Amino acid sequence: MTLSELVPGQMGIVKEFTDLEMSVKLMEMGCLPGEQVTVARIAPMGDPIAINVSGYQLSLRKFEASTIVLQ
């Protein structure tokens, strides 16, 4: 399951990334393997997605969220 498949209120644990280049960017923003992420809200058209990770809120495009595989 990927982060983009969750609905607001659901949470998961980051397992791995499917895009090497994107993974570097995401890890710099706190999306590290083993971190818990919670979907806070999703924009009306489905993009972007606001998540809570590492104690702050982060907005990701749906494509970026789809590269995060959850446990």
From TrEMBL:
SMART domains, alphabetized: FeoA
Name this polypeptide is given: Ferrous iron transport protein A
Annotated ranges, domain Ferrous iron transporter FeoA-like: 1-70
GO molecular function: transition metal ion binding
Keywords: Iron
Entry superkingdom: Bacteria
InterPro entries in the record: Fe-transptr_FeoA-like, FeoA, FeoA_core_dom, Transcriptional_repressor_C
